[in-house]
Each structure stands twice: as C-alpha cells, then as structure tokens.
Amino acid sequence: MKAAVIDHAGGPDVLSIQERALPKATSGWSVIHIKAFGLNHAESITRQGGSPSVQFPRVIGIEAVGEIYESSTPELVVGEKVMTLMGELGRQFDGSYEEYALVPNAQIYQLPVEADWAQLATIPESGYTAMGSIKTAKVQSGQTVLVRGATSNVGVAAVQLLKAMDTTVYASTRSEKSFDYLTAQGADEPILDQNGELQTAATFDAIIDFVGDQTLNDSLSHLKQGDGYMVVTGELADTWETDTFSAFNIPWGSYLTNFQSTDINQSWLDEMFSLINQAHLRFPVGQTFELADIVAAHHLLDAGHVQGKLIVTTP
Ligand SMILES: NC(=O)c1ccc[n+]([C@@H]2O[C@H](COP(=O)([O-])OP(=O)(O)OC[C@H]3O[C@@H](n4cnc5c(N)ncnc54)[C@H](OP(=O)(O)O)[C@@H]3O)[C@@H](O)[C@H]2O)c1
C-alpha cells in the first residue's frame, strides 16, 4: 500500500509517497481502508517539527473516513463505513495519510451519513469540533449565537449546525467579500470583524470564538449579561495569550470556557449526525487531491487561501 511518510521535519516536500506493508489487525486495534481525509493546520505544524512528541519517520493525519478492512472485534464489521479522529492518530502512531491505517477500536466511530467520500471527509474534525463547541456553549434553539472566525472550516460547520438547531446565527469575517459565502452556509447575519472589533453593538446568548486571545475582550463585550456562554475553540490569530484579560471582562453571571476535541463524546457525535441527516447539511469541500499529490495539497494548506476543506482521496 502507499503511504505519505515524513522522514524529517520540513516544508511540504518532506512528504514522500512510499510503499509499505499492509497493517494487520491486532488485539484492540483494527485496520481501516482509508477512502478520504481532510487536511488540518495541526498537521502542517507537525510536519514542520512543531509537535515535540511526534518522532519521525511518521505518517501524519489526525482524521479519516473509510471502511473496516480487518477487525479485531465483532463490533466493527468488515466493510462498515467508519471515521476516526484525534487521540494519538498521526502522532504516537501512524495516521491517515495512507491507504490503510491501524487504529485503536476505541477511536473508530460509525459514520451514518450518505454522501461521497470526499464530502464525508469534511465531517470528522471540523464537524465534531463545531458540535463540541456548540454543546460546550450550551446552545438552545431560539437563541442568538455569534460564530467569530466563521469562514474557517470549523466555523462554517458551526454555522450550518446552529442553523439546523433553529438558532439565529451571526457570523463574522474580516472581509465583506465573504458575506455571501456565510449567508450561503446559513448565517442570518454576517458581521464585519474590522481591526479586531466586531462592527455591531449587538450582544448574543452564546459566542463560539475561533479567533482566540487577540479578540477575547472584544468578543466578551458582545456576550449577554447573565447565563451567556462563550467558548474559545481556536486561535486563528495565533496569539495564544493576552495580557489585557481581566475576569471582570466576563459579563456578570455569564461564563467563559474553551473546547478541545481531544476526547470524543458519542452522544454529541450522534446529535451531529442527526442534524446533518435531518437538515441535509454538506460542509464545503475546497479542493480534492489524490494521495500522490499530497505535496501540492500541503502547499495549498500552508498558503491558506482556499474556502472549504482540502480533501485527499485514496483509491
Ligand atoms: N479546539 C479544538 O479542538 C480544535 C479543533 C480543530 C480546529 N481548531 C481550531 O479552530 C480554528 C479554525 O480551524 P480551521 O481549520 O477551520 O481554520 P481555517 O479553515 O484554516 O480558517 C481560515 C479562516 O480563518 C480566518 N482567519 C485567519 N487568520 C485570522 C485572524 N488573524 N483573525 C481572524 N480570522 C482569521 C480567515 O477568515 P476571514 O479572512 O474571512 O476573516 C480564514 O478564512 C483554528 O484556530 C484551529 O486551530 C480547534
């Protein structure tokens, strides 16, 4: 089978397609025939040597969709459509940038959605992170919700899921040119994020923030007072900390927390699949590549100009 292997850290060119032996299922682990996977910035960081725990050579890739090829448990049936994400996939053990992957049974999940493989590959990391953020923000139907950094892949998944939950969705971008894109995803009202300030006086029942610490105080100023929830899920501005934060910036009686997709909550996954199926949601695919073109795909990932998820399909 073919695998995109990284022997040492570096630019996109360090991803080399190599021939490897097919993995065998072992106790507690099963083999997935990978059909497609989405690309993530976390993988670019790992490729560049920014994940100290990752030892090279390594096949990176933190998510995939495919079929069970060889199983070590009756709960995973050969041919079954599944997805996997996170855990130590593509970090402590080889990840998704290959045709077949050996994955712990505990992190293989059923994928009850009918769509082609490239479309399905938009779901695991972006969809689950969006759903986890929504659940962490304790969003209820009928509420007003702001998604800050909404043109991101996780952002548009959040917009679509929130719309399907009957909330009123406000969605921010730094470019008015993206307003139509956000409206097409289901946003009720796009909002311009200009020099770190949202161009609105509105406050919201819940805020899901993908921009992070750089705009933390501005986001908090738009959270309602009393029982509002704000969840920081991303650091698109790449700031990671702020020296201007005060606990008294949180509106009285409201809450600030974060979301991390490290541990997967099956009931949140089930709720996400229900929303996807009931509302026929389709998270946008930016561009698709074959595994052989993984270097070109990573160049595009690093450039960061494509709206929609970059997807790699395998035979
Ligand atoms: N916590 C978790 O478990 C988890 C899991 C997955 C991802 N994440 C995080 O979630 C975020 C979104 O991930 P993604 O892969 O969906 O991102 P993405 O698709 O690469 O996001 C691209 C968008 O980010 C916006 N952006 C870029 N730099 C920005 C800045 N300085 N300020 C404001 N917006 C900026 C741009 O929107 P505009 O130009 O339209 O403003 C651009 O369209 C990332 O920070 C990622 O690390 C977290």
UniProtKB/TrEMBL annotation:
<keyword id="KW-0560">Oxidoreductase</keyword>
<feature type="domain" description="Enoyl reductase (ER)">
    <location>
        <begin position="10"/>
        <end position="312"/>
    </location>
</feature>
<dbReference type="Pfam" id="PF13602">
    <property type="entry name" value="ADH_zinc_N_2"/>
</dbReference>
<dbReference type="GO" id="GO:0070402">
    <property type="term" value="F:NADPH binding"/>
</dbReference>
<dbReference type="Pfam" id="PF08240">
    <property type="entry name" value="ADH_N"/>
</dbReference>
<dbReference type="InterPro" id="IPR020843">
    <property type="entry name" value="ER"/>
</dbReference>
<dbReference type="InterPro" id="IPR011032">
    <property type="entry name" value="GroES-like_sf"/>
</dbReference>
<dbReference type="InterPro" id="IPR013154">
    <property type="entry name" value="ADH-like_N"/>
</dbReference>
<dbReference type="GO" id="GO:0016651">
    <property type="term" value="F:oxidoreductase activity, acting on NAD(P)H"/>
</dbReference>
<keyword id="KW-0521">NADP</keyword>
<protein>
    <submittedName>
        <fullName>NADPH quinone reductase related Zn-dependent oxidoreductase</fullName>
    </submittedName>
</protein>
<dbReference type="InterPro" id="IPR036291">
    <property type="entry name" value="NAD(P)-bd_dom_sf"/>
</dbReference>
